[in-house]
Write a structure and sequence with these properties.
The structure is a single chain. The chain is α/β, with parallel strands linked by helices. The protein has one domain. Helices cover 28% and strands 20% of the residues. It is built from 4 helices and 7 strands; from the N terminus they run E-H-E-H-E-E-H-E-E-H-E. The chain has helices at residues 14-20, 38-47, 83-96, 119-123; strands spanning 3-6, 24-27, 51-54, 73-76, 106-109, 114-117, 128-129. It has a 7-stranded mixed sheet with strand order 2-1-3-4-5-6-7, with helices on both faces. The longest helix is centred in the C-terminal third of the chain and has 14 residues, at 83-96. It is globular. It starts with a strand and ends with a strand. The mean pLDDT is 93.
């Protein structure tokens, strides 16, 4: 079971869907983190050992959140930002991701590919696309 935290830009309605596929999921709303700075949200997620799921491109900043300095960041980039479409996009992608292999990584989840920045690759200036 992977520990996850949903950023405020993802619907709280994703929590039961992610829990149903075996993830221990919390939301920023549950912890009174709505409208808090990204750094505070990140600190809360990471101190709990939770991967952060978000739509916020600020969490893709490898300078602020270098791979290996956190349990993992999954930055979703759906084609549509409609709430129902985003929920379906995130839930469907989460069913197919091997989260154990993404521990400590920053992952950009795009419709046609994954961009994965692993701790060891970041140190060497590289990364991979799948």
């Amino acid at each position: 079971m992977t520990r996850l935290k949903l950023d405020e830009n993802l619907s709280r309605h994703l929590k039961p869907r992610l829990s149903a596929i075996g993830h221990d999921t919390t939301t920023t709303a549950e912890e009174n983190l709505l409208s808090k700075p990204d750094s505070e949200v990140a600190r809360a997620a990471f101190s709990e050992g939770r991967m952060l799921l978000t739509l916020d491109v600020g969490f893709g900043d490898l300078g602020k959140y270098p791979p290996g300095s956190h349990p993992g960041i999954l930055l979703f980039r759906p084609q549509s930002l409609g709430p129902l479409e985003v929920n379906e996009y995130v839930a469907s992608r989460m069913r197919n991701l091997d989260l154990d292999s993404l521990t400590g990584c920053t992952v950009i989840v795009e419709p046609a590919r994954l961009r994965i920045r692993r701790p060891e690759e970041h140190a060497n200036g590289g990364g991979e696309d799948e």
